[in-house]
Amino acid sequence: MTRRASPAFPDELVDQLLAGYKSPEDLTGKDGIIKQLTARLIERALQAEMTEHLGYEKHQPPDDRGGGNSRNGTSEKTLQTELGEMKIEVPRDREGSFEPVLVKKRQRRFTGFDEKIIALYARGMTVRDIQGHLNDLYGVEVSPDLISRATAAVMEDVHAWQGRPLEAVYPVVFLDALVVKVRDQGTVRNKSVYLALGLTMSGSKEILGIWIEQTEGAKFWLKVVNELKNRGVQDILIACCDGLKGFPEAIEAAFPKAVVQTCIVHLLRNSVRYVSYKDRRQLLGDLKPVYTAASREQAKAALASFDAKWSARYPMIAEAWEAHWERVVPFLDFPQQVRKIIYTTNAIESLNASLRKILHYRGHFPNDESLTKVMYLALTRIERKWEGGIRDWSAVLGQFKIYFKERIPTL
Questions:
Q1: How far apart, in Å, are the Cα atoms of 208 and each of 232, 273, 374?
Q2: What Cα–Cα distance (Å) separates residue 396 from each residue in 122, 132, 156, 206, 334?
Q3: CA-to-CA distance for 367 and 327, rounded, in angstroms?
Q4: Which of 252, 246, 187 has its CA nearest to residue 214?
């Protein structure tokens, strides 16, 4: 039988603390036992720090003291904590040389409180929402300036994260953007948040970076891929993106050997944009044999059959597929387990869906920095939830080794 460990606090001490206990409010309320006990523990710890600083115990006779410094009473400080506002007495010394460690000078928020603010911010909550939440939950009034200061340090993390070195080779990189409303020069504008999501050699997902721009364009994507290159990426085997004009060329300019696979889902959406609603289901059904074909030849034949049937009403659809053909069909060179990874941007679309849930809280962002902080915090939170890697990755990597040969580094 396992022997129960001795309690950290004797029952007699607990009984003393609970002597006046009548309701849960007495324990966890605004001025409850837990809050009072926390304040007393902080004060006792600060007194212990002062003893260590001076080198003698409180009330020790003068003859036994070392040095000329001595205690000089206390000063009251109000801390913002997870238990609410807490008033404590901080000891002082006559020389003013005491530097507390537990509660530093000018510190107004106790350990863990900033993390609460940042966690709420990461979920897309506005400053007003965070104020209300902290007031309802902890009875703490916080100012917008306090919240801004708590989240300001996040930008340092953003810059370090955005400039961190990347792996030399990524088998697959997904590139996409989502549109967010941001106030810019007094006007709320649509801005694009660019995302790069890579699959590493071990099959895990890694967010490579975020970038904000007024509009999505090939010129800006060239800047993005060049930044990836400057951060250490030497080769991308397959780059998956939408069919934006000039986008594939931007990728190939930085990574000439990369296979560019345009997203079939984007192409399908564009195909039915001007199609009558009553024709959509049948038209999409007739397009399916094109992107589910066993080979490039069969896909070409299926597109010809589709064009023969629909060209009279919708000639622009087959023309669009023909125009992008060489970047539509690369996935057909691979077996099924590889195709389902690269022929859509499902991985990054799923990421975007998670981000949209977070962004739903806000009508718009006050500036680019606010958007950047929320996006970074949200992305790092999402990354922590990713478990394992791509299913059957060893089989996928085996196919890549056959197809790309010496471009696959030895693990």
A1: 11, 31, 16
A2: 34, 49, 37, 17, 9
A3: 37
A4: 187
- Decide if 361 contacts 259 (C-beta within 8 A): no
Q: How far is CA 339 from CA 27, 137, 183, 261, 345, in A?
A: 59, 49, 40, 11, 11
Q: Cα angle at 235 between 230 and 237, to 5 degrees?
A: 140
For residue 231, what pLDDT band results from cuts at 50, 70 and 90? very high
Instruction: Tell me what pLDDT residue 1 has.
Output: 44
Distance of CA 262 to the CA centre of its chain: 26
pTM of the model: 0.68
pLDDT, average across residues 388-408: 86
One-letter amino acid for residue 85 of the chain: E
pLDDT tens column, 263-286: 888 888 889 988 999 999 999 999
75 sits in which H/E element: strand 71-81
State the average pLDDT for the chain: 81
Exposure class string for 189-223: b at 16+ Cβ within 10 A, else e: eebbbbbbbbbbbebebbbbbbbbbeebbeebbbe
Distance (Å, rounded) from C-alpha 164 to C-alpha 210?
13
Beta strands at 259-262 and 187-199: parallel, antiparallel or unpaired: unpaired
For residue 150, give Cα distances in angstroms to 112, 147, 368: 11, 5, 17
- Which of 290, 362, 302 minimizes the C-alpha distance to 331? 290
The dihedral formed by the CA atoms of 19, 20, 22 and 24, expressed in degrees to the nearest 10: -90
Write out the two tokens for 14: 């607990």
Which tokens sit at 225?
Answer: 């891929």
Q: What is the rounded CA–CA span in Å between residue 46 and residue 84?
A: 20
294/220 Cα distance (integer angstroms): 36
b/e 116-146 (16+ beta carbons within 10 angstroms → b): bbbebbbbbbbbeebbebbeeebebebeeeb
Strands 235-241 and 259-262: parallel
Report the residue count for the chain: 411
Residue 46, phi then psi, degrees to nearest 5: -65, -35
Phi-psi region of 164 (alpha: psi -120 to 50; beta: other; left: phi over 0): beta
Distances (CA, A) of 5 to 2, 8, 13, 17, 230: 9, 9, 17, 22, 56
